[in-house]
Amino acid sequence: MKALSKETLMNVISKTKSLITPEKRLILLKRLAEIIVQIYTFLDDYNEMMNIMTGLDSLSSTSSNFKKLTMYFVEILCDYSFEEELLMQFSQTLTSLFEKYLLDSDVQVRVCAIKSITIFLAYITDEKFVKKFASIFPILLSTSVEAIKVDEEAGKISLESLNDLIETHPKFIKPIINDLIILATEIFSTKNLNETLRNTALNIILSLSLNNQSLIRKSETFKTRTIPAFLQVMIEIEQTSNDEWNKDLEENCISQNSPAATAQEILGKIAPELGVKYLFPNFMPYIKETLASNVWQHQYAGLMAMGLLAEGSSEHFKNELDNLMGLLVPLMQQTNPRVVYAMLTALALLCSEFTVILRLFFLI
Q: In this predicted model, which residue has the larger pLDDT, 209 or 58?
């Protein structure tokens, strides 16, 4: 681009703008927008870029794609400018666009607005400014719910946007944290939703646990709904032949994209964040239920959960070792290879955690 004259670049912009028409597909319109933003960023002419954006907005009544494109302009403006001061300079115009499109009748337009807002806020560190957007957070939640009902892909995008917001501005989602827990739990525990959407909801639980530990531990919803839902999802391990399972185990690729595998992975990540002292006693009633079942998927889920929660448990639950071993011993007679694998995994992790006590009392 440096080799081109300003006149040439302006001619490119003029030609590109003439190609932005309502009948074109959104994916093509986005590529055209990227050309315009890159050139204006190179020329350091953000005022003209904003004029194009507001011009599109004025034509938005003629095309739903123009509304989506206007929001996409905001996204790439944020990505290419990378300057908080610049974004703050245009914040009044951008905020008015956000407010307008968040109330649009088309849920997909509202989802585009959510994505643009979260990307915009990700570049803002001024807490007083961010706080001005607190009133729209409930709208983000309600739009996400509606989007999932209409279009699961749009729902996934809105959930990812919420997740980004949790990570970039965790303190400002405190007023809606319980609603977020309810929404994420409802989605990841619903079997008839697609796997990607459910995994995205599980990642919201992870982000909340990483960024708002104290509020999660205080949440009655998390304790009574999210914790049992984790085990219910882990029970959904796929029905595969033993030969196929053994092959996958050797290749370390056991259903890595399934909600069951994702729930198992995320439980391992949130355990050190929320603390075993909190999680272990709250999980244990549900773990006992799964281990008492005759269904191998239930036994597998309970054993894996016990193993994942083993680290650090000796500090708080050394008097519970007899009870824990009592849950494992009956399953040592199991012949299902997946249950045996899970049992040995849990046993190994518990032995590692309670090494000193086991040496004294079990002569290991």
A: 209
Angstrom distance (rounded) from CA 10 to CA 40: 9
Burial 51-81 (b: 16+ CB within 10 A, else e): ebbeebbeebeebbbbbbbbbbbbbbbbebb
User: Which amino acid, 47?
Assistant: N
Least confident among 43-47, 202-206, 223-227: 43-47
Domains and CATH numbers, the chain: 1-82 (no CATH), 94-234+256-274 (1.25.10), 287-364 (no CATH)
Cα 86 from chain centroid (whole Å): 29
Degrees to nearest 5, angle at CA 41 with 36 and 46? 90
Exposure of 119 by Cβ count < 10 A (0-12 exposed, 13-18 middle, 19+ buried)? buried
254 vs 261, more confident: 261
Of the ranges 215-229, 251-265, 285-299, 307-321, the best mean pLDDT one:
215-229
Nearest CA to 143 out of 191, 174, 173, 183 is that of 183
3-state SS class at 196: helix
Answer yes or no: is pLDDT of 318 > 80: no
343 membership: H or E segment, kind and range:
helix 337-353
